[in-house]
Specification:
alpha+beta, Aminopeptidase
Length: about 90
């Protein structure tokens, strides 16, 4: 998470790209990310990083409850990115 005054400056892309690079250079085969479909800035960032949307889970998680204590369910997008060094049998 970044302070709102730092949004839109490329810091999230730069940080996430370095994390992906580090993970793949250290033998990680697959990365996964979950995000809120109502947060297009985040899922568009994932797509710019080369992640592919694999699914849309309906009402699979909640973080808050309403005034009567009932969960407020939210959807989730599932993304993944494969290590390009492992594609086509390369390592």
């Amino acid at each position: 998470m970044f302070n709102a005054s730092f949004w839109g400056k490329g810091y999230a892309y730069e940080a996430a790209n370095q994390i992906c690079t580090h993970a793949f250079e250290n033998g990680v085969h697959r990365l996964e990310a979950n995000c809120d479909p109502l947060n297009p800035a985040f899922w568009k960032l994932l797509e710019r990083l080369g992640f592919v949307r694999e699914g849309h889970l309906k009402q699979d998680i909640y973080f808050r409850k309403d005034s009567q204590g009932n969960p407020i369910w939210k959807d989730t997008y599932i993304y993944s990115k494969l290590n390009p060094g492992f594609l086509n049998g390369l390592s």
